[in-house]
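User: Can you predict the 3D structure for this chain?
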Amino acid sequence: MLDLLRSAGPAGLGRAELAARTGLTPQAVSKITARLGADGLIAEAGRAASTGGKPRTLLRLVPQARHAVGVHVDRDELRAVRVDLAGRVVGECRGPLDFGAGPEAVVEAVVRAVARVADPVGLPLLGVGVVAPGPLDHRAGTMGRVTGFPSWKGFPLRGVLQGRLGLPVLLDKDTNAGAAAAAGAWLRATWPDAEGDAGLVADAAGGLPDAYGYAGGGPRTCVYLHVGTGLGAGLWLGGGVYRGARSAAGEFGHQVLLMDGPPCRCGARGCVEVLCLGAVARGDLPEAARILGEAAANLVALLDVDRVLLGGRVVEAAPDVFVAGVGAILAARALDPARPVVALAGAGVAEGAAELALGPVFGRAE
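Assistant: Here is the predicted structure, written as C-alpha cells:
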C-alpha cells in the first residue's frame, strides 16, 4: 500500500483505488490506512472531484516521515546521502577514502559518515544501505576478494556495521545500487523537491522522457554500466535487481575482449576493464567509449534489454562522449531495428544504496 502511494506522488489515491489495486477489502484498507496515518506515514491529500456522490478522500505518502541512508564505499572516495521516503536527497557528505587501508579503517569512515548525514532533530532512520566494489555475498553480508584488495575477502561488513550503528544494514555491490537508482529515478520525478519543483519533468504519458531511459512511466528491463575506479554492470531484470545465485552477476568488467591482451588486475588478459580504463588513462575517451560499447553490445545481445544506462565518475566527466560512443556501437551491431536506448543513469550510486535500504518499507525484499 505504501508503494502504491509512493508511486502516485503528491496527488495520492483513494481508499477504493487502494482496495482495487491490492485486492484487500475496503474494511482492511480502512484499518491499515488508519494505522499508517497514526504512524505519520500517510496523510490526506484532499478530495477527488465528485462523480455524483460524496467526494472521495485521497491519501498520500508523507515522505519526510522517515529517512534512510545510502553509503557508496569506493576505492578512493566515500559518499553518503540521507533520503526521505520518496528517495529525495535531504543530506549529503563525501570525502576521500583509502579502501586499501583495510576493513577496520573503512568501517570507522562509514560510521562517521552516517553520523554526519543523520537528521540533527533525531528523525528515525529506517536503515542504511552500504555498497562497495564486488565481488561480495549480498545474502551473507560478507565481502569477497575484491580485485586488488585481497585483505577484504570474507570480512563480515554488514554484521560489523549493524553492531556499530544499531540499525538494519544492507550490503550490496555498487553496480547493483546503480541499477536500483536508475530504475527508481522515475519515482523521484513524481515528487517535488524541497523547493517545490520537480527534479525531472514527466512526459504527457506520465513517465520520464526517453532521455532518462523511461517513457510511459515505470522502470523497464535495463542494464547499468558503471565506469569509475573499476568497471561493472548492474542488472535490472523482471522488476528488480538481478544478482544471480551467488551474488556474482554483473562482473561485466572482466569479460575478455582481446585474447592475449594487456594483463588485468583480476589475473586475466584483455578484459574490458583494463582496455577501457587504459584508454581513459591515455586521455582517449572516444576509444574508451568504443570499448565500453563493444562490451555493452555483447551484454545486450545476451540479455535482450531495452535500456543501457551509464554512470560513474568517468562517464560523468564526459557524458556526451560516452552516450554517443556507446550508442554508435550498439546501433552498428544491432540485429533488430528496435535497438536499446542509451542514456545517462540520472542518479548516483549512493542514492541507489538508500533506495535498496528503503525496499523493505515498500514491500520489496532485497
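The longest strand covers residues 77-84. The chain has eleven helices and 15 strands.
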